[in-house]
Specification:
Strand 1, helix 2 and strand 2 form a beta-alpha-beta unit. The chain is α/β, with parallel strands linked by helices. It has a domain of 204 residues: Alpha-Beta Barrel (TIM Barrel). Helix 3 runs parallel beside helix 7, helix 5 runs parallel beside helix 14 and helix 11 packs across helix 16. The two termini are 25 Å apart. The protein is globular, with a radius of gyration of 20 Å. 45% of the residues lie in helices and 12% in strands. Strands 1-2-3-4-5-6-8-9 form an 8-stranded parallel barrel, surrounded by 6 helices. A 3-stranded antiparallel β-sheet has the order 7-11-10, with no helix packed on it.
């Protein structure tokens, strides 16, 4: 294909697949696309294990690593004790979660046995993020991506030192200019239809708006369209607007290789496009996820206001992990509460198939869409 992105990364088809599952990353790259491993929450040691496995199975095909490195967080650089971390969780937030789980027949034991890893992760502070990035740079990755905000200077500097292009997600034309000014190499322009962290502007509006803004400002950056893209025809539409390719995430969640539980996969297959919500309740920043009893509970009149990131994760993640485990065993209350990050494209994700087949379906659908466009021109 004639695509700046294909030339830059040596790929056959400009389909980028974000996934927390290493199997998906490998299968997409081997099928001609570009797999991207979501590495948030990984330690240098655990990331080393994942990347060693990818290197051993990907047959030399290109892949990338995606981190979440915000430029500002609540207490980002604080060195806190476990007791101080515990004190940052207001009692009303604890009570809200405990009552919600108890009302669905789920015990609340061990919810608040929080340690430093729960608070910081290994990609939220400069020192920790640098160690994780250095691990990534010891492997033959072809791009490193920041999933939230403008990549901080230390991220750009480390990438430049290793000769690795930097990608970044943006949800507005203003943020796109900040990324370009900072020196980002690839922009992932993500509309509100996307799963996970997302803004408020539709993909169909945002992609051409960002492209025009960059052009007016004198920037010539490849743009990947993202947000609700789960078919080749959507990818083709975005590329006719000027995008160099598509960045996808949700569509890989219903593959047989995906990291989600069977219970969540089935929920997604049955869900319509209107059955997602955009909420701060999971991470403290807006994310789109499956609507469930859990998400409804955070918009009730008596629900507390979500805390800033990363504090909200202390309130929610252990509870959600308990819900996932119980829902997989058939627990009715847990199944009602179970949710996961996914975009509005979930309404088109109606069966479980392999990641490689998804790539081939994208290719076929893309070609058919482009042929229809050519037929229109002939008429």
């Amino acid at each position: 294909m004639k695509s700046k992105i294909c030339d830059l990364f040596g790929i056959e088809f400009p389909l980028f697949a974000f996934s927390h599952c290493r199997d998906v990353v490998v299968e997409v790259s081997k099928a001609g696309g570009f797999g991207v491993l979501g590495a948030v929450g990984h330690t240098p040691e655990s990331l080393e294990v994942e990347l060693d496995w990818i290197d051993a199975h990907i047959d030399g095909r290109p892949y990338g690593v995606d981190l979440l490195v915000p430029t500002s967080l609540a207490g980002q650089q604080d060195i806190l004790t476990v007791e101080e971390i515990q004190a940052r969780i207001p009692p009303e937030h604890k009570r809200h979660v405990e009552q919600l789980l108890a009302s669905h027949g789920i015990d609340t034991e061990d919810l608040w046995d929080i340690d430093l890893a729960d608070y910081y992760g290994d990609s939220l502070r400069e020192e920790a993020a640098s160690r994780v990035m250095e691990t990534a740079f010891q492997h033959p990755i072809k791009m490193i991506i920041n999933a939230l905000g403008v990549p901080p200077p230390y991220m750009l500097e480390q990438a430049a030192a290793h000769g690795i292009p930097v990608g970044a997600l943006t949800g507005s034309k203003e943020h796109a200019l900040k990324h370009a000014d900072a020196g980002v190499d690839v922009l992932i322009v993500s509309g509100t239809e996307a799963g996970g962290h997302c803004g408020e502007i539709s993909t169909l509006v945002l992609v051409p708006e960002v492209l025009e803004t960059l052009k007016t400002a004198g920037f010539d950056l490849p743009v990947l369209a993202a947000g609700g893209i789960v078919t080749g025809r959507q990818m083709a539409a975005c590329m006719t607007m000027g995008a160099a390719g598509a960045w996808t995430g949700s569509v890989w969640l219903t593959t047989v290789e995906s990291e989600v539980t069977a219970s969540i996969r089935e929920k997604m297959i049955q869900a319509g496009s209107s059955q997602t919500v955009r909420s701060r309740s999971r991470s403290g920043k807006y994310t789109r996820q499956l609507r469930s009893g859990w998400t409804d509970a955070w918009v009730s009149e008596d629900a507390p206001e979500p805390l800033p990131m990363p504090l909200q994760g202390l309130v929610t993640e252990r509870a959600l992990a308990k819900i996932d485990k119980l829902s997989e065993s058939g627990h009715a209350g847990a199944k009602d509460l179970a949710t996961y990050l996914v975009g509005q494209g979930v309404g088109l994700m109606n069966s479980a198939t392999s990641a490689r087949q998804v790539v081939y379906d994208f290719m076929e659908d893309f070609i058919e869409a482009m042929e229809r466009a050519c037929d229109i021109m002939k008429d």
